[in-house]
Write a structure and sequence with these properties.
The chain is mainly alpha-helical and 305 residues long. Helices cover 67% and strands 4% of the residues.
Length: 305
Amino acid sequence: MADRIILSKKDRLDVCFRNQYTQGSWNYERMQNGGFCFAMIPAIKRLYTNKEDQAAALKRHLEFYNTHPYLTAPVLGVVLALEEDKANGAQIDDTAIQGVKVGMMGPLAGVGDPAFWFTVRPILGALGASLAMSGSIMGPILFFVAWNVIRWAFLWYTQEFGYKVGSNIAKDLSGGLLGKVTEGASILGMFIIGALVERWVSISFTPVVSKITQSEGAYIDWNSLPSGSEGVKEALTQYSSIGATALDQVKVTTLQQNLDQLIPGLAAVGLTLLCCKLLKNKVSPIVIILGLFAFGIIGRVLNFM
């Protein structure tokens, strides 16, 4: 089509450059939505000429969005392709575009931290630090240059990959490819989120369920320990063989210990599912955050958490 609107390489470079500031307007309600929308502005100006269409595009990209900042690049690429086809008359609604963003951001968030924060950055940091400790100015220079070259190359090439893949998704909307991609990404995201709940969510109930006086030998008799280093050594030996219950003659069992014996992390999973239910019912994230703060403070004051 002769009059088809196409995003040029310069347009895509402008989007990629702005993507570096995704975290610049991070907020507790919609998180990275401002940064994502800011990155999309050059493309929106190119694709839509009237103010009403531009405003509608800005509005749909101000919905909730959050993932690893570098892994936003492939999401942007796919969205650029979808917006390009939408601007050229394809039947792509706002829900489909938001669905792709939500479906991709979960799995990608789980990939970004291990790849960048726990692998690439520590390796480059260790290499730069070893050079710096030997007195070479090349240590910090190497880290700065290598990290930014890797970061920028990743942002650009993964955005371009997403842009090319996104075009194929947009062309096959009638065949259900978009739905399959979204569904598959959502399932993978749920697996990753489920695995990370135990790590990210911490809740502990302190009410005492029982107190049992232990028999002799089941705990450390602190008064009968030898003095000096020998006493310390014997106490550590007994602790190693008996466990944490060896520290006191009275064995105290809390509600949290019983829950952990039943299903470890049960309370954390329950709290996460409750928050998901509230979000599904259109409860504001700010209200949920304030509610969690209030619940934690009240629980601490009343001594049940």
